[in-house]
Amino acid sequence: MPYLPYYDNIDPGQGGSAMVIPEYPPFDLSRYQRFPCQKCESEFTSYEAWFQHRFEFHPLLRPTLFLGTREITSPRLIVTAPLNADQMRIVNTMECWLDERKVGIASLAQTLAKTRAGFFKVKLLGEQPGLQSDYEISIEIPADADVLRVESEFQRVTRAGVLSVVSVNQFIQNTLEARTARRYVDGLAAYLYGVLAKDQKGDTHLTQQQGRARLNEALQNLSEIGRPLATTITAIINFQCNAFASNDSLAAAPRLRLAMDWFEAARRGQDLSTLYRDETRPAPTSHVLLDAATDELLSWVALRLTKLREQAKFIERRARQDDWLPEDRTKAKVVATVLAEFEGDVMRAAQIARGFRHDPVFGNLAERLIAKSKDMGA
Q1: Assign residue 141 a region: left if phi > 0, alpha if psi is -120 to 50, beta otherwise?
Q2: 3-class DSSP state for residue 99?
């Protein structure tokens, strides 16, 4: 292991002697310390008391941009849907600059709202000196005709039933004229390449790890696009990464929403039976291609535990399958663990749970089962 040498003494090179670094005099702890507030006449005897007072009574109000109810916290913002000038709010701001030109707040809102394609640098200067917020806003609002063309071509790939590198390339070629929707095309193509790499099919030369990178690329591009197709694919990728945030936007994808809720309830140790409801739904109007592992996982949790128990051995084999990515193997282990606990075999559940004991998402579930098995064995 590399290391960095250091020396206690400094050798001035005179007679081989060493000059000792003088020590600072010890700090007198008995001396009275004062921490005055620069905003008022208050004074404190400890830094902790001054700190609490300063940020409780004199907070630093950072200039902030709001779009509707959304607070913009990232320095770079991509806008893919028309903005409403009346819903733009800028708070705690004394001066507003747009591309190095000082403008009024209303003028900034109107400029951003009427632009469909452009890149802007926005600087907000706060009411208190030294407080400043900088934003880079890229407006990329596609034409409706381009969006519809992209989604139509994507569904053509899905309806073909067989995904390959050739079909993905054909999708890209067929959408070249949809110039205003390039981000949408790039995100959808990256997703399809990621599915091919994950399954190692369709003449792909990408490894599974390279496919993971393509899926991350798809997530970045599609998360800014407020279309049902983009929202569904974003949720699929989050599910693959074990991020189970179900919300109303997934109402159109009940199978995925149930899986999200299932794993979230499982990791929290909640009752899974409450997730199943007998609902009549219309036939789906569109489809999204899934990789094989995600499809199996969604199929498992769509079954009640009394029916799923028939596949317990098969699920445990999947949990050890090398061609499944670690996140998918972990989900399979969680399903196997839930089934073992449902059968009353807590020891078996704890044994499986040790395989994801240090997982950042399911670690607490594993610890609970391990502790439960120890209590039973005591």
Answers
A1: beta
A2: coil
Instruction: Give me the residue label for tokens 């084999």.
Output: 317
- What φ, ψ does residue 301 adopt, rounded to 5°? -75, -10
Do β-strands 76-79 and 132-140 pair in parallel, antiparallel, or remain unpaired?
A: parallel
pLDDT in tens, the chain (378 residues): 343 444 444 454 544 444 444 444 454 445 556 788 877 888 888 878 887 887 788 777 889 888 877 788 889 988 888 888 888 888 889 999 999 999 998 999 999 999 999 999 999 998 778 889 999 999 999 999 999 999 999 999 988 878 999 999 999 999 999 999 999 999 999 999 999 999 999 999 999 999 999 999 999 999 888 888 999 999 999 999 999 987 777 888 889 999 999 999 999 989 898 888 766 566 666 788 999 999 999 999 999 999 999 999 999 999 999 999 999 999 999 999 999 999 999 999 999 999 999 999 999 999 999 999 888 764
Question: Could you identify the residue written with the tokens 């399903």?
Answer: 335
- Half-sphere exposure in the Cβ direction for 287 (13 Å, CA): 11
Question: Is the overall model pTM greater than 0.70, yes or no?
Answer: yes
Separation between Cα atoms, residue 291 and residue 21, nearest integer Å: 65
CB count in 10 Å sphere of residue 341: 23
* Parallel/antiparallel/unpaired status of strands 132-140 and 117-126: antiparallel
What is the spatial distance between Cα 261 and Cα 274, in angstroms, rounded to a whole number?
10
**How many Å apart are CA 77 and CA 120, to the nearest integer?**
10
Q: Go through 230-248 and write b for each residue having 16 or more CB atoms within 10 A of its CB, e for each that does not.
A: bbbbbbbbbbbebebebee
| Dihedral angle computed from the Cα positions of residues 325, 321, 290 and 168, in that order, rounded to the nearest 10 degrees | 70
* 137 DSSP β-pair partners: 77, 120
Phi/psi zone of residue 84: left (φ > 0), alpha (ψ -120 to 50 degrees), beta?
A: beta
